[in-house]
Amino acid sequence: MMECxxxxxxxxxxxxxxPLSVDSPETAHQISKDSWFQxxxxxxxxxxxxxxxxxxGTIMVPLGWIFGVVGLIAATAISxxxxxxxxxxxxxxxxxxxxxxxxxGYIYGRKAYxxxxxxxxxxxxxxxxxxxxxxxxxxxAVYVLFRDDQALKLPYCIVIAGFVCALFAICIPHLSALxxxxxxxxxxxxxxxIIAFVLSLQDGIKAPARDYGIPGxxxxxxxxxxxxxxxxxxxxxxxxxxxxxxTVRKPVVDNMLxxxxxxxxxxxxxxxxxxxxxxxxxxxxxxxxxLNNVTGPVWVKAMANISAxxxxxxxxxxxxxxxxEYLDTKYxxxxxxxxxxxLSFRIAVRGGYLAINTxxxxxxxxxxxxxxxxxxxSTFPLTFILANHMYLVAKKNKLSSLQKxxxxxxxxxxxxxxVAAAVAALRLISVDSKAYHVFADI
Length: 442
Fold this sequence. Notes:
Blueprint: H1 6-9, H2 36-47, H3 55-88, H4 100-108, H5 110-146, H6 154-171, H7 180-206, H8 218-236, H9 241-245, H10 252-263, H11 269-282, H12 298-330, H13 340-363, H14 367-394, H15 401-435
GO cellular component, one term: endomembrane system
Membrane topology: Multi-pass membrane protein
Subcellular location: Endomembrane system
């Protein structure tokens, strides 16, 4: 098989091309094969992943009712707006930009290409780390339901989760190949969301008055509030929209916008329900994994946790796919997914990548802190700062002065938020690192 040369993989400016023709860069993965409906389910899989079980504790508890509700609604609207900006640039300049770094490189140049790739890699690595922590926590929760001997500790569960994620990654060659697995993902999501919702509702009806005050000292409240703001943007954004858009059928922009509207209407409703009901039921004592709070039949809670584990395995594959695409394209991994060369490559490379993820997950299993840090150092810059500035640069001759001012205000505001959130997240990790040793059994 032919390998892609370095020249093929570099972002190139092509302003002199015919604007009516749209070229697609070379990739080892399938593009333009999926309906907008399938892509919409890819996006909603991210929103309603098992991370949703943590938002009552990591967003609502630090923000309270007023700022929590307003913040979630505002984050939904702002995230939809920012994602539509990126979606509209997918065919900018007569070329399909199927990777976020390609779009940034085309608009700004080589340095921006490398910086964007670095930010995106950090974003996806941190998200995948969180997914493995989630999967391990779900396994540990199932074990504790039936045995309370503390023999199976969280680090062991994380290792098991990482191994299962690696097996799935080896079996599914690319993002479009998920297909029926997206149906399973949706089913598993509905199982743990409905169970968490119903059990929380029952607990809330029977429970005495709850405390909804924001816990902590004045200084700690400031940091946790900023960290919760980072979690808000983390909840709605993938940081890999061009890579997902690459899979959608033509007309690419119109179909992607349909998928986004699906994500931010129908897709957000389950997340809203479980987040608000979870906080209503348990108040400021809500944990960062809602299924640890609920009471009910053991078999029902076990089913919810098993569903969370299985859905996490599928969701992780989505967020790891840009790294897989890069490596498969670089080394010419095409053709039959079951050929010896391709299969052995996936076993070695994808298995090795997820082994590193698993090690970091077991070392520092502080899920809420990772969500805050990911939102601060990568989701803010990728989704809001870059989105607004790239649109400003790309459309500068077509924008009014008021529109330009609006985009600059977004760039400056989210730039400040990114710095503040990063400081807050690092402080949280520092505090938790003192409270827990490495490979902690949380």
